[in-house]
Amino acid sequence: MKILAIESASVTASCAVSENGIILGEYTLNHKKTHSEKLMPLIETLMKELELKIQDIDVIAISEGPGSYTGLRIGAAIAKSMAYAVNIPIVNVATTKSLAGNIFDLSNHIVPVMDAKGGRIYTGIYKWEDEELVTVKEQFPCNIEELIEILSQYEVPSIFNGDGSVNYRSIIEEKLKDKAHFATEKFNCLNASTLASLGFQMALKGEMINASDFKPQYLRLSQAERNKK
What we know:
The chain is of the alpha/beta class. It has two domains: 2-95 and 190-228, 2-Layer Sandwich (Nucleotidyltransferase, domain 5), CATH 3.30.420; 103-187, Nucleotidyltransferase, domain 5. Helices cover 34% and strands 29% of the residues. It has helices at residues 35-49, 69-86, 95-100, 144-151, 163-167, 169-176, 192-204, 223-228; strands at 2-7, 13-19, 22-29, 59-63, 90-93, 109-117, 120-129, 132-142, 158-161, 180-182. The strands form two sheets. A five-stranded mixed β-sheet has the order 3-2-1-4-5, with helices on both faces. It has a five-stranded mixed β-sheet with strand order 8-7-6-9-10. Helix 1 (35-49) packs parallel to helix 2. It is globular. The termini are far apart.
């Protein structure tokens, strides 16, 4: 099974191709939100280097959100158009789960924290069971104090990653003390190779949808919508 993974939920523009869980190639740019200009050329270059055509792809994995409104829409448009073109399914992976998938740790809960600005964050709680990343608590929007209150109810320590874990590290350490651990910087960014790996596991279980049924999950109104409201 060949999977084309497309990551566009944050400043990172990334694409990867895997075959039966093995990453064949990946291109990632972590520089400015220019997905409309950079993402499709990255995909085309990757496919050319791997000597593949879209007809060779069996499934498209896409980061479903939350994240950048513009980035998510660009990724959705590319994924849906390519899936429509060759009539293949989409596997949509929660963005926070994809971020959590950067870390393999059997001892701690994995808590990705995405900074949504304005004092808000996107997060979720995950854990590894054998070789599968399991959802303890589905992704949700909140503030850092609310997340800390939730985590304080668990006996299991947590390891944090994502830009929010960097921005809010001091308060997390102050409140959770030795129950808080932090990933190194390289695990704080989304990437398509992790997305492809999680997408492969979901595809094996039949957790796929038609291109027409996919839509990004924003979890909150856009800034313009909030201002209007």
